[in-house]
Amino acid sequence: MRATCATIHLDALRSNLAQLRGHAPGARVMAVVKADGYGHGLERVARALAAADAFGVASIADGLRLRAAGTHQRIVVLSGPDEPGDLAELRRLRLDAVIHHEAQLDLLAADTDPRPLRVWLKLDSGMHRLGFPAARAREVHARLRALPGVDPDIVLMTHFANSDVFDDAMTARQIECFRAATAGLGGATSLANSAAILGWPAAHGDWLRAGGALYGMSVVEGRNGVDFGLHPAMTLTTRLVAINRVHKGESIGYAASWQAPQDMDIGVAAIGYGDGYPRSARAGTPVLLGGRRAQLVGRVSMDLITIDLRDHADARVGDPVVLWGQGLAVEEVAAHAGTIAYELTCGVTRRVLFAEDDRAA
Ligand SMILES: *Cc1c(COP(=O)(O)O)cnc(C)c1O
Fold it and tell me: What CA–CA distance (Å, rounded) separates 27 from 6?
């Protein structure tokens, strides 16, 4: 049996939510659970985060999954409706819709159902991805307010491009742009993603939108979630399936990219890019063996990785290997693979066994 397992620490999720609330007392928290709860499991995360005030999803289909699982909080579809049939589905499932584009205004204007739909008006304050130009805030807000099928309690929102740099002038400009564009419109505001919750108090507003930090991850360059008092919500583990002696000058794995500098033992562990362990992880990427660090050598293959055992003479076939999580920050592994922690947790594949751990973090 393959021993590759992602353990989800439910108490870490709960404790991270409480920690984030402490940064912005009085604000409500939307737990962002897109991409299957950043790879941790949508329903599982929603169940653990029952104390969240709302959930943010990427699609109506995910909203349906959450309602089917018994989620009673507000659920916000972050990209809103795409076609007329979506409006009926949003109402049936009591989902809130982000409205970010003219085409969606047209859908709403053509809609004859008078049951009020809750909307979040998304403004572009400088990221230039989704959102109406901030300069149009007043006009679009007035158009939405005039529609009988739209709940008049509209939340005003925007998203930051670079809030993980805590002294960046761009975020300060985005906050100012949003404030100026929405002044006097009334209604709740929502600006802050995880990095802004941690580093931009001026952007807290009424609704926080917390993603990565809930899962214990930091997006701040060179800092890990634990540096902010967050706990990792996923630990990815496997086992050693072989230990082999190689001689000085012999190469390890595909492309023979790594040569043994001396006679040494190589551990082979049952995980690879087929499980979502990044193929781009370089030689030197850390893993934990018996609670101590060891280093990857050679290429990551589909099912296997190879590990330098020179400092682990006591290692035995069957020993557990931690790839990331408790004791080894996923941010650090991501840095060795030239990516961010989010991509790693989102990328864990279906063949990995998921387990839940409910002990205190
Ligand atoms: C994904 C997302 C978030 C959460 O971002 P994190 O950096 O993970 O906290 C917040 N708002 C929107 C609109 C998002 O798409």
Answer: 32
Ligand 1 probe mutation, 13, 16, 32, most atoms within 8 A of CB? 32
Task: Output the six-digit token pair for 228.
Answer: 């902010």
Domain stops at, among 186, 219, 252 = 219
pLDDT digits (tens, 9 = 90+) for 306-342: 999 999 999 999 999 999 999 999 999 999 999 999 9
* Token reading at 332: 């650090």
CB-ligand 1 contact for 211 (6 Å cutoff)? yes
Is residue 5 situated within a structural domain?
no
Q: Could you report the per-residue pLDDT of 29-55, keeping only the tens digit for each?
A: 999 999 999 999 999 999 999 999 999
pTM: 0.96
Ligand 1 binding pocket includes 194 (Cβ within 6 Å): yes
Separation of alpha carbons 359 and 11, rounded Å: 6
Q: Per residue in 243-267, is it b (16+ CB within 10 Å) or e — as a string?
A: beebeeeeebbeeeebebeeebbbb
Report CA-CA distances (Å) from 13 to 17, 211, 249, 344.
Answer: 6, 11, 46, 17
Q: Which domain holds residue 310?
A: 234-357
The answer to whether residues 66 and 140 belong to one domain is: yes
Structural domain count, the chain:
2
Q: What is the DSSP letter of 151?
A: -
